[in-house]
Structures are given as structure tokens and as C-alpha cells.
Amino acid sequence: MRIRWATVACAVLVDVCVSAAPPPAPEGFRWAKNAAYSDEFDGTKLDGAKWYDHHPRWKGRPPAKFMPSSVSVADGHLILRNAMLPKPVQDGKYAYTIAGGAVVSRKTEAFYGYYEARMKASSVSMSSTFWFANPSKESPDGSRASQELDVVETVGQRKQGSDRRTILRSNSHYWFTTKDGKRLKSPNKSTPQCRGTCPLDPPADEAFHVYGVWWVDANHARIYLDDEFKFTLTFETTYDTTPFDRPMHLNMVTETYDWETPPTPEELADDSRNATRYDWVRAWTLVPVK
What we know:
By secondary structure, this protein is an all-beta fold. It contains two helices and 19 strands. It has a single domain (31-288), classed as Jelly Rolls, CATH 2.60.120.
């Protein structure tokens, strides 16, 4: 379904806790709730019919390994609490020392529509995220490709580089593997329209914010912060003229990075700092008005 994304106005909603909603639908369409990717997290445990409590295809980036023990539901929130592992876990060539967290949708049919999460980041040097991806798919010529759409990827306490708490960063990636096995990444540095930033206030680890994306079509996505439109991502077309034309799964993940110093045991032992909280995640799909 392709719509005229450039002419659609955005909704400005003051109280995101109560009034959070998708932007106005284009003429001739309405928004229908997509229950498969929506959850208020009002129970006492994760809905295992809807979510994995780990990543089904990715163990995590060392030194943090995705652990089901990091995932809980309490006080109306999904909580991903990072911690030191009781002892290092050797998995192949890696020794993991930190428990990261991942909650991933079991369904992999998230497609064009509006998705948002109300999230408060942790205050340690690990990520707090809301994003979409899919596994690679082979083309008739033997090459393979996959998509990644990062709505928010923040770090609650940087130890290297600039403070990420006060800037929303959104990115799109198109991962391409040639038929002879060489993996290439969409050249974002030469295509700034594939990424965007805007100020984030209060900082991501001091308050809940609503992070939203309107995945419009195979070439565009619109990013919203606290229900205000901020910028448009135009997907890289070096390898495909319609790069984001396949469904994805939804991810809420906390991880370590190879470009950031991991948190200390003391930082991870502090329950006031070590958890990313999601108040809810909600999704809508456009359907024709009858």
C-alpha cells in the first residue's frame, strides 16, 4: 500500500501518557489496532504467546549475552534489567560476563503502519532500544539482503564520545551480501537521509518518552517523538530500488557495544540505574474506510 506521505499532517499531543495515538490517517483510510505488536504490560509476566524473552537468532554482542533472567513484567512495565553474570559464560569463542536483555516479537509480519513504544532508558553504558529487523532473504542471483529500522538506540551513560541521552538518533540499514559471500552495509555516511536526529529533553534516562515510527512504504519512514513528527528517513537504494518491502519483527533490546566501555559491576548492581523500562508498545495498520 503506497500513500502520499509528504502531504500528511502530524498530530501534536500534549499528554503522551493519556493521549498517545497515531498521526492522522490519510484521506480514505483509518488506523486499526494491530494487536500482534501491542502490549500494555499490565500483568505479572511476559506474554509468551506474543514475545520471546531472548533473541531467537542472536546471542548478543560480547560481553553481554541476552538472558531470559533479565526480563520481567511488574508495576505496569516491561523491565530489562542488566546485571553481572554469576560467572562468565563461554559460548563458542566468546566469554560473556554481563546479562543483557531482549524481547522480540514472535510474529515476523510487522509491515507498513505506525508503531510506538513508551520507554525510559537505563543509566548505564548499555543500549536502550526499539527497532525492527528481519533475517536475510536470498535473491534468484544468489545474493542476500536484510533490513533494519532503528527507531531509538540510546545509551543512558556514555563513557566514550558524546552524550546520547539528549539526542534522538534513528537509523535505517540495508544489509546486502553478494553472491560470493561478501557482506556490505548500506553506505549511510554518504546518504544522510537514511538517518536523523533531534533534541531529546528531558534526557532519555530521566523520563519516559514515546518513540514512534510511521513505516510508510518501501522507501520512507517518518519518525515521531512524544507524538510530534520530527524527520523522515529515506531508505538507501544502492542495492534495491524498493529496499524496505519485506515484513520485519519488533525488538526491545539492551546490549553492549564494541565502541563503548561496558558498565562496572558496581553500576550494574545499582537497581536505580541498571534497568530499561517500557510502559507499553502499540501498533496500528492503515485500512480503507468503508
